[in-house]
């Protein structure tokens, strides 16, 4: 039986990841860091969904919960596996998760820290193959060679150690490792942030090619909005553990509906000196909301230039506005500036 | 506060670097981290040095203050530093461990680094560290130094500066730490501030605030700034002058407008083309331009033009054989490329950005 196209690949519902804060000799729990605090999200097959926000907003924790590196404190993650009925993987044990491990993979930020320096490329990339049932060493070698070629590395290099590669090449090894077992969903956490611009462009192009070739779905976690605009179909903006705006990428950049989204867009430096001089600036002051000590009402109100008494008292719920979801009391009435293609 | 001497014309640079070379003699060979660099930094202006990792941009900054890690050393060139009302000094000629350069460091020329947590002591309060620096360079009482430290923190937009003096760096957020670093750097009213990727580790929102702050402080004090970054967006926000470096050489320099709107060097063109631009809608299947290959290993430096191995315009037998001249393409806009040299190429196609 084939799944209808509309069924999302993954459906997260009211996902919460809370970390206890322990104090004193007895390590009593005195509070919780609510890193992810009630997120519901559909990930559609074949799309690139970006998650953006400042550091501390919970985007990395969300990514780790989706790949089940972390077990969520609460909520469900419905995943529609290959030819299987959707199952909730949010609270499965490690053994129960095994069949999903080859389906949902991760690419990490730091290509220097995420590769074991004492293992050869064939072992780094081939480990997942061996883990998922490829026992014949010759087959491991062939398949590692294939995937290396796909990411633009020479198969001859598989006997080398990570130190022999540059940052961009290492990130390709990280991508090869994630893709070796033919996953469907790849969560990429700041995977081009540590790369130089010229290498970043190569890597982004490669990721797009691979998406097309292998029919991949990406969750792209990033703080770099220019990259996000370039690569995403949809964008989720996070603040203090929650989604404040979720929209088709083009609409979000053209006309943000949440003041936080608008502020993020305004802060992106653009390679246009004349525009920089003329642009009116919407500057965010103050610090990111503390996820252990969430402000009352809308978590963004202490930094929001449009905040009213209502925002200080009443927590805005995510609701549909103009074909997208926004958590702001004034989403309809605010006239927020997006990025103007003509000005750039 | 700032007295402008009339005898000094505006065009006199605060720091004028000519033919700077910083080399590392390793057992494996000689690394030319900085290989013949010319730069000018002016009072009240910001010079951005932009390049990829390994381009030598940080080494240029370290060379100015003579804090190149051994076995590297400034081996050639001159760096004339002319602070208002004082005799010009050639920083390149000073002993890295001598008294004269130590009087310049921190006082006349201050530096801030990328990761504030690595530059601040974790076991001393912010106030102690600020006061230490002030007392090192100025004769005053502890009380006066404390006054000045609190003032410095207030000036960089830290709320409750007097109370903040007794906090430790770990109690501050990344943005606040970078503000403390800037406060420390500015406490002695330097004529030149060198900032090495000061906003790279920060969120875009915090970065925007720090860039605004630096521009404000510059307008207030007329200090010169050398700002090192890999981010062309940041360059566009604050630069008056831009120098693009590749493998220890300045391949192009000029005003921000010249470099962004009339770039000449193929490397500058490629850099500008490889960044995704906000607001430029992606069409399905559209790709970013990427520069082929990667920055060569410093021990494996190509012959001739350093960029020839990756350059789409490179002409065999010329670019991989001889060093290009540096030409003044238009007033104040310098380019080092054979293919822009009228003696070699008479006409070229209009490059598209």
Question: How would you describe the overall organization of this protein?
Answer:
The complex is a heterodimer of chains A (344) and B (353). Chain A has a domain at 10-96 and 218-326: P-loop containing nucleotide triphosphate hydrolases (Rossmann fold, 3-Layer(aba) Sandwich). Chain A is 31% helix and 22% strand. Chain A has helices at 59-66, 94-101, 121-131, 137-150, 167-179, 197-214, 225-231, 249-254, 259-267, 273-278, 309-313; strands at residues 10-23, 28-43, 48-52, 74-79, 87-88, 104-107, 185-189, 217-222, 234-239, 242-248, 319-321, 324-326. In chain A, the strands form two sheets. In chain A, strands 6-7-8-3-9-10-12-11 form an eight-stranded mixed β-sheet, sandwiched between helices. Chain A has a four-stranded antiparallel β-sheet with strand order 2-1-4-5. The mean pLDDT of chain A is 88. Chain B has 353 residues and is of the alpha/beta class. Chain B is 29% helix and 22% strand. In chain B, the strands form two sheets. Chain B has an eight-stranded mixed β-sheet, with helices on both faces. A four-stranded antiparallel β-sheet of chain B has the order 2-1-4-5. The model of chain B is unreliable at 1-9 and 349-353 (pLDDT under 50). The interface between A and B is large, with 51 and 46 residues.
């Amino acid at each position: 039986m084939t799944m209808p196209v509309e069924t999302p690949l993954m459906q997260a519902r009211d996902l919460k990841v809370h970390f206890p804060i322990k104090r004193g000799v007895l390590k009593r729990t005195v509070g919780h860091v609510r890193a992810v605090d009630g997120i519901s999200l559909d990930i559609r097959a074949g799309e690139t969904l970006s998650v953006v926000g400042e550091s501390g907003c919970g985007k990395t924790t969300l990514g780790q919960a989706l790949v089940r590196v972390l077990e969520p404190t609460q909520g469900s993650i419905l995943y529609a596996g290959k030819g299987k009925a959707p199952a909730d993987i949010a609270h499965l044990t490690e053994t129960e998760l095994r069949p999903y491990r080859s389906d949902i993979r991760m690419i990490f930020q730091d290509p220097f820290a995420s590769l074991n320096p004492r293992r050869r490329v064939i072992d780094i990339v081939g480990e997942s193959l061996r883990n998922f049932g490829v026992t014949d060493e010759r087959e491991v070698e062939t398949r590692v060679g294939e995937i290396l070629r796909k990411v633009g590395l020479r198969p001859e290099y598989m006997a080398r150690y990570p130190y022999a590669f540059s940052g961009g090449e290492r990130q390709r090894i990280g991508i090869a490792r994630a893709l070796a077992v033919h996953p469907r969903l790849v969560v990429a956490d700041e995977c081009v942030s540590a790369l130089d611009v010229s290498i970043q462009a190569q890597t982004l192009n490669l990721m797009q090619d691979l998406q097309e070739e292998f029919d991949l779905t990406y969750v792209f976690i990033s703080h770099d909005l220019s990259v996000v605009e370039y690569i995403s179909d949809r964008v989720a903006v996070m603040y203090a553990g929650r989604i404040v705006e979720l929209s088709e990428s083009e609409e979000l950049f053209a006309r943000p509906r949440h003041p936080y989204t608008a502020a993020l867009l305004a802060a992106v430096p653009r390679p246009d000196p004349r525009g920089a001089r003329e642009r009116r600036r919407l500057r965010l002051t103050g610090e990111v909301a503390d996820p252990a000590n969430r402000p009352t009402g809308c978590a963004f109100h202490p930094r929001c230039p449009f905040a009213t008494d209502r925002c200080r008292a009443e927590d805005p719920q995510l609701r549909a506005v103009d074909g997208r979801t926004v958590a702001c009391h004034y989403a309809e009435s605010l006239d927020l500036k997006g990025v103007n293609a003509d000005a750039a | 506060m700032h007295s402008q001497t009339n005898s000094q014309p505006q065009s006199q640079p605060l720091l004028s670097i000519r033919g700077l070379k910083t080399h590392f003699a390793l057992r494996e060979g000689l690394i030319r981290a900085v290989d013949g660099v010319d730069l000018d930094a002016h009072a009240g202006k910001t010079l951005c040095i932009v390049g990829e990792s390994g381009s030598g941009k940080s080494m240029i900054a370290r060379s100015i203050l003579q804090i190149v890690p051994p076995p590297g050393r400034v081996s050639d060139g001159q760096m004339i530093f002319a602070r208002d009302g004082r005799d010009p000094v050639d920083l390149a000629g000073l002993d890295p461990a001598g008294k004269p350069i130590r009087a310049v460091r921190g006082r006349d020329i201050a530096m801030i680094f990328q990761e504030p947590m690595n530059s601040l002591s974790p076991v001393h309060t912010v106030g102690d560290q600020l006061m230490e620096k002030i007392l090192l360079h100025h004769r005053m009482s502890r009380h006066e130094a404390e006054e000045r430290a609190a003032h410095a923190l207030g000036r960089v937009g830290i709320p409750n500066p007097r109370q903040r003096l007794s906090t430790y760096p770990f109690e501050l957020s990344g943005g606040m730490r970078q503000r403390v670093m800037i406060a420390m750097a500015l406490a002695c009213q330097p004529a030149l501030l060198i900032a090495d990727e000061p906003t790279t580790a920060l969120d875009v929102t915090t970065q925007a605030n720090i860039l605004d702050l630096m521009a404000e402080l510059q307008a207030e004090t007329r200090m010169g700034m050398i700002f090192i970054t890999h981010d062309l967006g940041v360059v566009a926000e604050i630069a008056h002058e831009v120098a693009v470096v590749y493998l220890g050489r300045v391949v192009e320099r000029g005003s921000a407008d010249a470099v962004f709107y009339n770039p000449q060097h193929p490397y500058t063109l490629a850099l500008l083309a490889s960044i995704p631009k906000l607001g430029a809608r992606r069409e399905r299947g559209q790709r970013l331009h990427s520069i082929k290959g990667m920055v060569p290993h410093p021990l494996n430096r190509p012959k001739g033009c350093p960029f020839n191995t990756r350059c789409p315009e490179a002409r065999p037998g010329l670019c991989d054989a001889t060093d290009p001249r540096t030409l003044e393409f238009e007033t104040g806009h310098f380019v080092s490329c054979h293919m822009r040299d009228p003696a070699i190429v008479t006409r070229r196609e209009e490059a598209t950005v």
